[in-house]
Please model this.
Amino acid sequence: MPAAHCILIVDDNALMLLTLTRILEQHGYSVLGASSASSALQLVQTKPVDLVITDYNLPGSGSELGPALKRLRPRLPVVVFSGDPEAAQAVEFADLLLAKPQEPEALVAEIRRLLSGEGKRNAA
Model:
């Protein structure tokens, strides 16, 4: 059996982090969690992350996470998952914008699409 894709979820809301982790693990993904931009960047540098799902509004320099991820690993798919209308600005670096809340099956379908190599799209 092939190794599961590793997805990094970045959200300062512990309940959202736990919920997304459970959903993705139930679909066979390996999941890492981070509650800040700095810890997310450290994980991307040290772990084999295949895709990042991040909230747009993280404390500190959270809005810089997406651009920093793309500088570090330009081909790494980044999904911005946010309820904030300001998240539309993330189109500059995000491979996908998804509005919170999102049906779990729709989220998983979009992740599968991105991991299969399909391109950038805004689904919010």
User: Anything to note?
Assistant: The two ends are 33 Å apart (CA to CA). The chain has a mean pLDDT of 87.
